[in-house]
Automatic annotation (TrEMBL):
GO terms assigned for molecular function: glycosyltransferase activity
Family: Belongs to the UDP-glycosyltransferase family.
Keywords: Glycosyltransferase, Transferase
Species the sequence originates in: Solanum stoloniferum
Record-given protein name: Uncharacterized protein
KW Glycosyltransferase (keyword) present: yes
Listed SUPFAM superfamilies: UDP-Glycosyltransferase/glycogen phosphorylase
Length: 287
């Protein structure tokens, strides 16, 4: 409890310092640029930086929030703070719970952002998240014509982009690192914002040798660490179905080599004959 409380305290101090120092630094940069004849004409900022919009408003500069998640996620947060909070809080206690929000598909508890269903304890290390989301929405509410640039596109989320009439949501996605665009002079040598680099092996060629819709794809994202037992169960399931697969596993680069050896799956040889495993961070591909 003491460690968790200390973590929360440190995070709050950090967020406060970022706001204080960041606001002043941003203000100074904008004013200096104007004095040098290079006025800032618009400001695009992202989540956790609502104070950037306040600085822009103070200096009479139009601003827009860059939302890097789907429009549906932003809509869910909006509805949470506008009449649906109590109903959403019930989701963690009822596996059969579902909710129909305006212009969104039917959602179950597992579809909600984790910040809405995780611990509400003040000792939760992510306790700063919800208040920050609320502040971000309040900042947008205070603008005359709030604009949000969303990492999506109309054909994918047409209704979610229209769900909040008070905000002007503009789909500008999918946003991808410039290294994907084929520029030989790109300064990026990796996938940019992703947590792993390109594999030296061309697994796309392997995929193209397989019949359409025949590959089983498994990935739990860059944030989730599976236990060895969980990986073993997935591996056994893959072997039982006898289908080619592409399995992306987050590599724990911070653990010792001895521990890595112990983490190896017992059926690795069988797996390597059947499909491919991509390890984030190791920059290699096993087949």
């Amino acid at each position: 409890m003491m460690v968790s409380s200390l973590t929360c305290m440190i995070l709050n101090v950090i967020m406060s310092e970022i706001r204080s120092c960041g606001s002043q630094t941003l203000r100074d940069i904008i004013l200096k640029s104007s004095d040098e004849g290079r006025p800032v004409t618009s400001l695009v900022y992202t989540f956790l930086l609502p104070w950037a919009a306040e600085v822009a408003h103070e200096l009479h500069i139009p601003s827009a929030l860059l939302w890097i998640q789907p429009a549906t996620v932003l809509d869910i947060y909006y509805y949470y703070f506008n009449g649906y909070e109590d109903e959403m809080k019930c989701s963690s206690n009822d596996p059969n719970w579902s909710i129909q929000l305006p212009r969104l598909p039917l959602l179950k508890g597992q579809d909600l952002p984790s910040f809405l269903v995780s611990s509400s304890s003040k000792d939760d290390k992510y306790s700063f998240a919800l208040p920050t989301f609320k502040e971000q929405l309040d900042t947008l509410d205070g603008e005359e014509n709030p604009k949000v640039l969303v990492n999506t596109f109309d054909a994918l989320e047409l209704e979610p982009l229209k769900a909040m009439e008070k905000y002007n949501l503009i789909g500008i996605g999918p946003l991808i690192p410039s290294s994907f665009l084929g520029g030989k002079d790109s300064l990026e040598s990796s996938f940019g914002g992703d947590l792993f680099q390109k594999s030296n092996d061309d697994y796309m060629k392997w995929l193209n040798t397989k019949p359409k819709s025949s590959i089983v794809y498994i990935s739990f994202g860059s944030l989730l660490n599976l236990s060895r037992n969980q990986k073993e169960e997935i591996a056994k399931g893959l072997i039982e179905i006898k289908r080619p697969f592409l399995w992306v596993i987050r590599d724990q680069e911070n653990i010792k080599e001895v521990e890595k050896e112990e983490e190896k799956l017992s059926c690795m040889m069988e797996l390597e004959k059947q499909g491919k495993i991509v390890y984030h961070g190791v920059h290699n591909l096993k087949s």
